[in-house]
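Technical annex B. To support the medicinal chemistry partners, we prepared a structural model of the target in complex with magnesium ion, based solely on the information shown next.
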Amino acid sequence: MENLSTLKLAIRKFAKDRDWDQFHSPKNLAMAMSVESSEVAELFQWLTEDQSKHLPKDKVNNLSDELADTYIYLLKIADHYGIDLISAALKKIKKNELKYPVKKSRGSAKKYNEL
Ligand SMILES: [Mg+2]
């Protein structure tokens, strides 16, 4: 299993080798990430709940590719601003714990402002 630093370096090298950083403004990266995350959603479009939980192997492979595309753009945006996504995600979980106290939110799909 590779680590995040290795992945970040590979992503940087991929763009640098192709002189693509000129196209990778945060705005363009955010748009690209949104497109790729839509490709994730497209794989589930029109499936039943049950079908979505049991994708065939070829669809799981497609899902893996689209999640990777989304993740790469996410990491590139974070890299641009020097955001450590692991720290940021852990911090956000703490914030979400305050927004969604277990007592109020357990078993509920309501948004925090409706709890
Ligand atoms: Mg894609």
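Notes passed to the chemistry partners:
Residues 36, 39, 66, 69 surround magnesium ion (CB under 6 Å).
The domain at 4-83 is CATH 1.10.287.1080 (Helix Hairpins).
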